[in-house]
Amino acid sequence: MGERRAWADKRDEIMSRPGAGAAYEAARVRFELGEAVRLRREELGLTQAELADRSGLKQPAVARFEAGGTMPTIPMLERLAEALEMRLSVQLQPLREAS
């Protein structure tokens, strides 16, 4: 059987690969956007199907988005924001200030 390694060692190995940092950051953005939409939808008492109807999407698309499974376009974010009674705000930040 193979040698067991600590998770931290495995993570460091994976993150040292070319492009791993960018992929991780993209996944983080997808997750955070999906979570924000889900929390607001729940705050409004909407189901995924109701949000889909309001935004012109299909329920599975809303489910995938909320799970962080898709990177949305700006038009999609605008549709979701309007359906959630919110205003979309996109901003660029210097890397040293972004978290």
Automatic annotation (TrEMBL):
One of its GO terms (cellular component) is cytosol. InterPro entries: Cro/C1-type_HTH, Lambda_DNA-bd_dom_sf, TransReg_Diox_bact_type. Keywords: DNA-binding. GO terms for molecular function: DNA binding; DNA-binding transcription factor activity. Transmembrane segments: none annotated. It holds the Pfam family HTH_3. The keyword DNA-binding applies. Residues 37-91 form the HTH cro/C1-type domain. This is Helix-turn-helix. It comes from Streptosporangium subroseum. The lineage of its organism: Bacteria, Bacillati, Actinomycetota, Actinomycetes, Streptosporangiales.
